[in-house]
Amino acid sequence: MRTVHHILTDHQLRNTSVRKEVLQLFLNKEIALSQPEIEHELDDSCDRVTIYRTLATFLEKGVIHKVLDDQGAMKYALCADTCSAEVHQHDHLHFKCTHCGTTQCIEEAIIPPIQLPAGFQLAELNVLAQGTCPDCGGGK
Amino acid sequence: MRTVHHILTDHQLRNTSVRKEVLQLFLNKEIALSQPEIEHELDDSCDRVTIYRTLATFLEKGVIHKVLDDQGAMKYALCADTCSAEVHQHDHLHFKCTHCGTTQCIEEAIIPPIQLPAGFQLAELNVLAQGTCPDCGGGK
DNA sequence: CTTTTTTTGCAACAATTTTGAAAAAGTCAT
DNA sequence: ATGACTTTTTCAAAATTGTTGCAAAAAAAG
User: Fold this and answer.
1) β B75-78/B103-106 pair status
2) Are B77 and B22 in contact (CB under 8 A)?
3) At CB < 8 Å, which residues of chain A contact B?
4) CATH of region B4-135
5) Nearest residue on chain A to B70, judged by CA atoms?
6) How far apart are CA B33 and CA B48, in angstroms?
7) How confident is the model at residue A140 (pLDDT cuts 50, 70, 90)?
8) CATH topology of domain A4-137
9) According to DSSP H, which parts of B11-133 are helical?
10) What is residue A64's three-state secondary structure?
11) B131 interaction partners in chain A (CB closer than 8 Å)
């Protein structure tokens, strides 16, 4: 099982209270979060600047990855266990529900290889799918 | 041929100097631009606020579309001739070169249909491919 | 050329993100 | 555990980014 402590030490990060809180939030929520959302969830218990720097550190060390958003607000989500500062494996897509606004990683959806014109070297692919999620679409 | 004047009147927009300048920029550059980039390119000849409003108007009328970026700064690119305020056709992908930083629309690349888990209703799909473009990758 | 409507620019504001430096907390070797 | 050392957090301040209201300017229509 992936404990907060475990993940931090695995990525050569100190076990500080803020990092543990932020990381636990990602583990609990299982959705992509933006800085303002994290700040709100943590009940303003720590400084805004600290969250910015924590996210930057997590990004750098491969604990989280960026999730695109159509509103400009950058979001972040937990990486798989296999990710590190050097290696990233992110071929899954992100689904944003236009109704409830949450974004989640969909590992199940396979993204077929895309053929690019000659000369383009593909390094990373980000897919943002938008529509209604099961929670919001089922009731209608 | 698509002239600036033409495009504006086609979308029921007045032919003002700022709109013509901004639109001309998109036609010349053929890459996705952000508000700060536009402001800089226009040599601060017009107000920041005007650019924001111009982009908002263009978006609304279907002249340009949003292009996702991994840096949080929203970018915009010209729509196809067929787009209008009502109808949008955007199944192409965007390629951002990690070397030169430019983002361009790749109309040629076909995005295969993606199978989502049950319950997810897909409405829109945004694909951001990153890597090196022909201009930057060829020399290495 | 005059009237009407829309757009632009300015000023002020609000929100978001970044930077520098001192205080606080974590780590490690005694 | 204690102290020395390193990293992280916090606070204050600034730089960026995006919004709003209103008067002046510009475009379209007659």
Assistant:
1) unpaired
2) no
3) 66, 68-70, 72-74, 93, 95, 98, 106, 108-112, 114-134, 137-138
4) 1.10.10.10
5) A68
6) 14
7) very low
8) Arc Repressor Mutant, subunit A (1.10.10)
9) 17-29, 35-41, 48-61
10) strand
11) 120-124
The ranges assigned to domains in chain B are: 4-135
Q: Report chain A's mean pLDDT, rounded to a whole number.
A: 92
Q: Which two tokens stand for residue B95?
A: 């390629």
Contact A126 B123 (CB under 8 A): no
> Which residues lie closer than 8 Å to B136 by C-beta, 6 or more apart?
B97, B99, B100
Which nucleotides on strand C sit less than 7 A from a protein beta carbon? 6-12, 16-20, 25-27
For A54-63, the pLDDT digits (tens) are 999 999 999 9
B66-91 pLDDT, tens per residue?
Answer: 999 988 789 999 998 889 988 887 77
Q: pTM of the full predicted structure?
A: 0.89
β-strand pairing of A64-67 with A75-78: antiparallel
Instruction: Check residues 39 to 68 of chain A and report those whose beta carbon is under 7 Å from nucleic acid strand C.
Output: 48-49, 52-53, 56
